[in-house]
Automatic annotation (TrEMBL):
Residues 1-21 are annotated as: Disordered. PANTHER family: ATPASE DOMAIN-CONTAINING PROTEIN (PTHR34301:SF8), DNA-BINDING PROTEIN-RELATED (PTHR34301). This is Cytochrome c domain-containing protein. GO terms for molecular function: electron transfer activity; heme binding; metal ion binding. InterPro entries: AAA_16, Cyt_c-like_dom, P-loop_NTPase, WH-like_DNA-bd_sf. Keywords: Heme, Iron, Metal-binding.
Length: 398
């Protein structure tokens, strides 16, 4: 098979050739865009799921939908221990530029940009020297007395309100998309929830779409109790068999090639329905196939190649971030769950496996949660955020 024509595209956040199994989420967001644009009340959206299920891809698709409808749309990726002002300023700057194309009053656009610049400049400490202060790259003077108090909650409400009103002028809205939302700092996530709450009460055309790991709802709830009612939560999971087959068959067919039913069986068994793994195994199977059709034997030949690539780029890069004590904790989890993807382990059992007191393992557990390698599935239980990670760890010891 010609490798140049290989349709599969494994990559972080890279849109697959066939966005299978997400029709329901896409249709629901289309309704949100239309309702908000018409002044109807609608909740912001939070997507949750393990790594590799396509949350980032779906977030990008939703952003594209908003832009096609004439909305202002900006996207950020939260980072641990990093404030929200800088990335949020850049994202909303992009959204305002989207709206400015349709707005007939340049002075009105500049006024909002001035507020945005004032908000952004507060990202630098007030006692920092002028040459050390971050400049947001907004070519208008900052507006004084609006979104520049230094209180992130007050400033977000004022900024979101002004940007939403600009969108309302042209009959659309603003979508702010936040990836890795569980990494937003505690004060910032609290302020974000409060701002969303304030705007939802006023009916402003402003929607936040967050994506994060399965424990994100608990993070939001710990920040503001009303967040359970503020957002609509959508769990993004692995694809079922029909959708997984579509993710393979559709792109292969567009290249005038075919794949046998037995090969589809083998691909589903290997990838487990996880979109990222489908792309990885699909790409390797295409390259391994000497001719059309792709067979189960081709998938078998390709599997070690795909697994070797995943071991380096998907699993290994995350494992390398763990300290020796954290790796010991991860291996104990893998041994207790026998490498099964969906099963968590009791923290007490992990302590027993390692012959340690549960309290002595708290630093390792908390650090692994912060690094996004594990999450608290329920009280007293821990699970991997990465599908097949336990199996990878067990294979390392073989």
């Amino acid at each position: 098979m010609d490798p140049v024509r290989n349709p599969f595209a494994p990559g972080a956040g890279q849109r697959p050739p066939e966005l299978a199994g997400r029709e329901k989420e896409v249709a629901a967001f289309d309704v949100v865009l239309e309702r908000v644009a018409r002044g109807r009340p609608e909740r912001s959206l939070v997507l949750t799921g393990l790594r590799g299920v396509g949350k980032t891809v779906l977030l990008g698709e939703l952003r594209s939908m908003a832009i096609r409808r004439g909305w202002g749309a900006g996207k950020i990726e939260a980072r641990p221990d990093a404030g929200l002002r800088r990335p949020l300023s850049a994202a909303l700057h992009r959204a305002v530029r989207d709206l400015a194309v349709r707005h007939r009053a340049p002075d009105r656009v500049e006024q909002v940009l001035g507020v945005l610049k004032a908000f952004a400049l507060r990202a630098s400490p007030s006692d920092s020297k002028l040459r050390d202060r971050w400049q947001p790259g907004i070519d208008v003077p900052p507006t004084q007395g609006r979104a520049d108090s230094g209180d992130i909650e007050i400033d977000l409400v004022e900024l979101f309100t002004d940007v939403a009103e600009l969108a309302q002028d042209v009959g659309t809205g603003v979508a702010l998309l936040i990836d890795e939302m569980q990494d937003v700092m505690a004060d910032d996530i609290s302020a974000l929830c409060a701002a969303c709450h304030e705007l939802s009460q006023s009916g402003a055309p402003f929607v936040v779409v967050g994506a994060g790991l399965p424990h994100l709802p608990a993070v939001l709830s710990a920040s503001k109790s009303y967040s359970e009612r503020l957002f609509r939560y959508v769990r993004i999971d692995r694809l079922d068999r029909a959708d997984a087959d579509q993710a393979v068959v559709a792109p292969v067919s567009r290249e005038d090639a075919t794949i046998t039913d037995e090969a589809l069986d083998a691909l589903f068994d290997a990838a487990g329905g996880y979109p990222y793994f489908i792309q990885a195994y699909g790409k390797a199977a295409w390259d391994a196939a000497p001719s059309d059709p792709i067979t189960a034997e081709d998938v078998g030949v390709a599997a070690p190649e795909a697994e070797a690539e995943l071991a380096v780029g998907f699993f290994g890069s995350r494992y390398e971030r763990a300290t020796p004590a954290e790796r010991e904790y991860l291996r104990a989890m893998a041994e207790l769950t026998k490498g099964k993807t969906d099963e968590g382990a009791a923290t007490a059992d992990i302590a027993g496996q390692l012959g340690r007191k549960p309290s002595s393992l708290s630093p390792a557990r908390d650090s692994l949660i912060k690094k996004g390698l594990i999450f608290s599935a329920e009280r007293g239980r821990i699970a991997f955020t990465v599908p097949h990670f336990g199996r990878y760890l067990l294979n390392m010891d073989d």
